[in-house]
Design goal:
The protein is mainly alpha-helical and 338 residues long. The two termini are 39 Å apart. The relative contact order is 0.15.
Length: 338
C-alpha cells in the first residue's frame, strides 16, 4: 500500500516520465522485495522511509503552505515508526533530520509550533516501545549501545549502503567480502547475466551520484524548475545524512553496524537517480536513440533482477522459511495437546 502510494505520488508530483523510469528500479529492488515479503522489524523502517521521502519533499517544496504544515507535523511521527523498526535510526535518519532543521533554522523557526506538535505526537507513538523497554530494564537499548563498547578506534558506519541501495545489489545476508559477493554470482549454476547488470547498475548509480554532487556543490547553478530545485535540496539532505550518520556512529561508538541499520534512509538514497531523470527529461525525450536505449536497459535489467531475486530466495530464504514452518507446526501441535 505504501509503495503504491509512493509510485502514485511520483506520478502526480514529478510526472509520467520520471514515474515510469523510477517504478521498475524501485519495485524490483532486492531490498524492497525482501522487505515486502518478510516480516522483520527493520523492514518497517525501509517501507516507511518512502512516507518520510514524500513528507520531506512536500516540506521543502513549499508550493502549498498547507502541505508544508502537514509535513512539519507528521515527519517526526513517521520517524518514530521508523525508529521502532530499528534503534539505529536514532543514529542515522533522525539526527540527519535534526541537523537539517538546524542548518535551515530560518524556515524551521517559521514552522516551529508545528514541529513541536509533531515531536509530541512522535513521543506518543514511541511510548509503547519505551514502556516495553522500561519493563525489560532497557535490554534492547543496552544491547545496541554496547556494540562499540571498549572500541577506541574510529568507527565508520557502513554508509556505502546508501550508495548501493538503488542498485541491483542485495547482499545483506552474504556480504562478508568481495569473494563472497563474486561467489554468489559465479558458483554453480553461475548467473553471469545478473552479475553484468549488477555492474551496469552500479555504474549508472555512480554516474547519477557524480552528477548530483556536481550540481549540489555548484553554488552558481540555478535550478531550471521548482521540481529540480526541490530534488536538489533533497540531495543536500542526502549528503548531510551521510556525514551525520558517520558522526553519530563514531561519537556514540555504535559499531559499524549492518546495511539494515540505515533502512530509514533507503528512499532518500534514490535522490541522485531521481535528480538525473528530472534534469535530463527533455533531453532524453528529444533523443530517440538515448530514450530507446534507456528503455531497453530497464527491460533487460528487470529480467536480470527477476533472476537475481529467484537465485537469492533459493539460496537463502527457502531453507529458512521451511525451518520456520516446522517451528510453527511444532508450536501448534504443542498447543493442541493442551
Amino acid at each position: 500500500m505504501i509503495i503504491s502510494l509512493f509510485i502514485f505520488w511520483l506520478y502526480k508530483r514529478l510526472g509520467l516520465f520520471v514515474c515510469s523510469l523510477m517504478s521498475p528500479l524501485i519495485l524490483l529492488n532486492g531490498y524492497l522485495v525482501k522487505a515486502m515479503t518478510n516480516f522483520w522489524n527493520p523492514n518497517i523502517s525501509l517501507i516507511f522511509s518512502f512516507i518520510f521521502f514524500i513528507l520531506l519533499y512536500e516540506y521543502i517544496d513549499k508550493k502549498s503552505n498547507k502541505k508544508t504544515v502537514i509535513s512539519s507535523i507528521f515527519i517526526f511521527p513517521v520517524l518514530a515508526i521508523i525508529a521502532q523498526g530499528h534503534f539505529a535510526s536514532f543514529f542515522s535518519v533522525i539526527p540527519s533530520m535534526i541537523f537539517y532543521l538546524i542548518v535551515t533554522y530560518k524556515n524551521t523557526i517559521k514552522y516551529l509550533k508545528y514541529w513541536i506538535l509533531g515531536i509530541f505526537l512522535s513521543f506518543l507513538l514511541y511510548l509503547p516501545y519505551l514502556i516495553s523497554e522500561i519493563n525489560n530494564s532497557f535490554i534492547n537499548t543496552k544491547s545496541m549501545m554496547s556494540k562499540g563498547y571498549g572500541v577506541s578506534r574510529i568507527i565508520v558506519a557502513k554508509v556505502q549502503a546508501l550508495f548501493l541501495f538503488p542498485t541491483n545489489e542485495m547482499s545483506s545476508h552474504y556480504l562478508q567480502g568481495l569473494k563472497n559477493i563474486i561467489e554468489f554470482w559465479t558458483s554453480s549454476p553461475s548467473y553471469i547475466y545478473g552479475l553484468i547488470f549488477l555492474v551496469l547498475s552500479i555504474i549508472f548509480s555512480l554516474y547519477c551520484l557524480i552528477n548530483m554532487l556536481y550540481y549540489v556543490f555548484n553554488f552558481k547553478y540555478k535550478a531550471k524548475t521548482s521540481y529540480e530545485g526541490t530534488i536538489l535540496e533533497l540531495s543536500r539532505f542526502f549528503i548531510l545524512s551521510v556525514f551525520s550518520t558517520l558522526l553519530c556512529f563514531n561519537t556514540f561508538k555504535f559499531g559499524e553496524g549492518y546495511f539494515h541499520y540505515l533502512y530509514g534512509l533507503f528512499s532518500v538514497s534514490y535522490s541522485p537517480i531521481i535528480l538525473f531523470f528530472v534534469q535530463k527529461e527533455n533531453y532524453i525525450l528529444n533523443n530517440k536513440k538515448i530514450f530507446f536505449a534507456l528503455v531497453i536497459f530497464l527491460i533487460l535489467n528487470a529480467a536480470a533482477m527477476f533472476g537475481t531475486i529467484d537465485r537469492y530466495v533459493n539460496r537463502f530464504e527457502r531453507n529458512s522459511s521451511n525451518k520456520h514452518n516446522i517451528y510453527i507446526e511444532d508450536f501448534l501441535k504443542t498447543k493442541e495437546k493442551y
